[in-house]
Amino acid sequence: MADIPSKASRRWEDFKFIYTQDDGQNIVTSDRLSKDENGDYLLPPTALLQARQINDKKTKFWGKPENLRKLEITYEESRNQDGKAETRRYCPYRPTDKQIVDYVKEVISACEQRFGASGTGYCVDYRGENRFTIDRPQKFSEIN
Fold this sequence. Notes:
This protein is α+β, with helices and mostly antiparallel strands. The protein is 15% helix and 26% strand. The protein is built from 2 helices and 5 strands; from the N terminus they run ββαββαβ.
């Protein structure tokens, strides 16, 4: 009888944090942080993202996460057919917050450490919040 292959492990971690909407309302949301084949983060959470982390198991933001502010990261990946791969990092700070510039710099620095050191190309693209659609969240939890 053939050996049963071991179950594939999850290649991401659910990272829950406080997100400040453009209108100033704080909500809880989460991001799936990708991991490589060794179980290490593709891009580790930055200090400013960790400062917003919560460990509450009950509170969860429900809705369309594609409407949130984010940094879209495209990088070279030779194992993919088109030679590229994508990931993203939600941006928990409002555009008017002083921390947003530092947060973006931290993510770019993490990309430089991960992809720049190996000579792999990467691109970081900022996408603003898109809340004015019919896809607004149906249910969410507020943070006071």
